[in-house]
Amino acid sequence: MHPLDKFRYCPACGSSHFAENNVKSKHCADCGFTYYANPSSATAAFILRPDGCLLVARRAKEPALGTLDLPGGFVDMDETVEQGMAREILEETGLSVDVMRYLFSIPNLYLYSGMTIHTVDMFFEVGVSMDDHPVAADDAAELMWMPVADIDPCLFGLNSIRQGVELWLRDMRV
């Protein structure tokens, strides 16, 4: 299925002659408008305390309701990825972050409102002090500090997050 199959009409002129142009776009035969389905930017944070514990969230919403997750989410328009990461951490944990380090990215398919959204999930490492006390909010039903040695990637419900945790743990153990 084409990523834009839910879009039947041209967003520029309203024509029903809006058809697949190639694997990443649809084109309007009437007005010539071409729409490209580029991925959305999303973030995920490995928030570490000095004692080696990782902050893990339990998802409060679908997809993957009730499974483990990392704090993060979609980057808003007119926001840098770093600003989006800091905002998502604040919204989900109440923690303010000044320093973060980009690690890697993973392409993802995220089911939202019956649509498959292509994303590029960008992973960051964030350090916090032992005195920081996160509080679960927004998309996080619960937050917990887990010793890195106890983390099982299979408990993370979203594919890209699970893959990211596996990569991160592998790098941690090198």
In words, what does this structure look like?
By secondary structure, the protein is of the alpha+beta class. The chain has two helices and ten strands, in the order E-E-E-E-E-E-E-H-E-E-E-H. The protein has helices at 81-93, 159-173, and strands spanning 18-22, 25-28, 34-36, 40-48, 53-59, 68-69, 72-74, 100-112, 115-127, 140-147. A four-stranded mixed β-sheet has the order 7-4-9-8, with helices on both faces. The chain has a three-stranded antiparallel β-sheet with strand order 1-2-3, with no helix packed on it. It has a three-stranded antiparallel β-sheet with strand order 6-5-10, with no helix packed on it. The radius of gyration is 19 Å and the shape is elongated. The model has no long low-confidence stretch (mean pLDDT 93).
Number of strands: 10
Averaged pLDDT:
93
Q: Which structural class best describes the helix and strand composition?
A: alpha+beta
Q: Compute the gyration radius: what is it? A: 19 Å
Oligomer: single chain
Spatially, the strands of the biggest sheet line up as 7-4-9-8
Task: Chart the SSEs and their pairings.
Blueprint: E1 18-22, E2 25-28, E3 34-36, E4 40-48, E5 53-59, E6 68-69, E7 72-74, H1 81-93, E8 100-112, E9 115-127, E10 140-147, H2 159-173
Parallel strand pairs: 4-9
Antiparallel strand pairs: 1-2, 2-3, 4-7, 5-6, 5-10, 8-9
